[in-house]
Specification:
The structure is a single chain. By secondary structure, the protein is α/β, with parallel strands linked by helices. Helices cover 53% and strands 11% of the residues. The chain has helices spanning 39-51, 72-80, 90-99, 107-121, 133-159, 164-194, 198-208, 215-224, 234-240, 266-282, 284-295, 301-321, and strands at residues 6-12, 16-23, 31-36, 60-65, 84-88, 245-246, 249-250, 254-255, 259-260. It has a five-stranded mixed beta sheet. A hairpin with a 3-residue loop joins strand 1 and strand 2. The chain is globular.
Length: 348
């Protein structure tokens, strides 16, 4: 972590954001302010920091919660002006607030708590970098498609029991959303083929080579992940999608069942659900995994989540190694494949 003299806690909302500037060496010498959440407010923040004695942007480590898109523009502004920026999971700051026995929460106190959290944990915080334009645009397109699909499916469910005028209204909305989804899918395909980053299309084609994964799943998963060059292990991709297990044990009496951490992209998890069901039938690697789990007494959601995790690992493996999917790589009795092997399958 680069040297810094101050932590800047930012509590951001749609129209404004509150900040708390804390000297790392003197928690009592802090200052607070509030600004509008637009370019003018960003510039006012920069001028305010200069007036408080910040000579170099690198002296400040700013922390924002990754709760919504409201903070993206400010994070890009700070990054573009050479400030250190971290986007932190709100669950971490909430747990920190609980550890401080905080009983009252408002925007000003939130900014103060985030500044203290940043000062306390900064050696373990990852510095944020903006996505490349192609990557950011693809993420917006795939998320827009998911939002429309959810709305269309909701109207589809209503159609099952509706009659009369409500049924006609639901049908009209369903058809309109279906058309918009197809338009978006065409746009996503065109955008991927014409992207300025030539690696994007190659990565999508590699991900699409995994049995059970279609084009839309491939682009959605890659859009939700950071650049693959910044991910070193498949386990990191699993954690970024919130598919890593979470369990709690204490002594002999507290021993909860493992569950998903869900501390990651809900869009990524949603994109993998239906492909995992398909892969359990048609992808030999995922199908064998499902059979082993069922033989061990596992069924239902456990098997599906394990399939989602395995599918994500396979996508990461083919993209990372630059080799199309080979269903025989893990079978020692299979004929030698022309493709290189992927990483060994993990124990679920």
């Amino acid at each position: 972590m680069k040297p810094a003299t101050h932590s800047l806690g930012v509590d951001i909302a749609k129209d404004k954001f509150d900040v708390n500037l804390r000297p790392l060496a003197d928690p009592q010498g802090r200052r607070a302010a509030s600004f509008t959440n637009n370019l003018r407010g960003f510039e006012q923040l920069r001028q305010w920091l200069l007036k408080t004695g910040i000579a170099e942007p690198g002296q400040v480590h700013g922390c924002l919660e990754s709760t919504s898109r409201y903070g993206d523009a400010l994070a890009r502004f700070l990054y573009g002006h050479s400030f250190q920026v971290s986007m932190v999971n709100p669950r971490r700051t909430r747990n920190y607030a609980n550890s401080q026995l905080t009983r009252t929460i408002n925007d000003t106190i939130d900014a103060r708590l985030i500044a203290d959290f940043c000062a306390s944990e900064r050696d373990d915080l990852r510095l944020w970098e903006p996505l490349q334009d192609d990557h950011a645009e693809l993420r917006q397109l795939t998320r827009a498609r998911q939002a429309l699909v959810q709305q269309r499916d909701a109207f589809g469910n209503l159609l099952e029991t509706a009659s009369g005028l409500p049924r006609k209204i639901y049908q009209k909305q369903f058809r309109a959303l279906d058309r918009q989804i197809h338009q978006l899918e065409t746009l996503i395909k065109t955008f991927t083929q014409e992207a300025l980053n030539p690696q994007l299309l190659k990565h999508v084609e590699l991900a699409d080579s995994v049995t059970g994964v279609g084009f839309i799943t491939a682009v959605t998963v890659l859009a939700e992940l950071p650049p693959v060059s910044k991910i070193h292990q498949a386990a990191q991709a699993v954690a970024l999608f919130g598919l890593d297990p979470f369990n709690k044990t204490s002594g002999k009496t507290v021993q909860t069942r493992s569950r998903l951490s869900r501390m990651g992209s809900q869009y990524g998890r949603r994109a993998l659900y239906m492909p995992a069901l398909s892969a359990l039938r048609f992808n030999p690697i995922v199908r064998d995994l499902g059979r082993r789990l069922r033989a061990n007494g596992r069924d239902g959601k456990y098997v599906v989540v394990a399939a989602m995790r395995k599918l994500l690992r396979l996508i990461f493996g083919v993209v990372k190694q630059g080799k199309p999917f080979d269903p025989n790589w893990s079978n020692p009795t299979a004929p030698h494949s022309k493709h290189h092997r992927l990483e060994p399958a993990p124990t679920v």
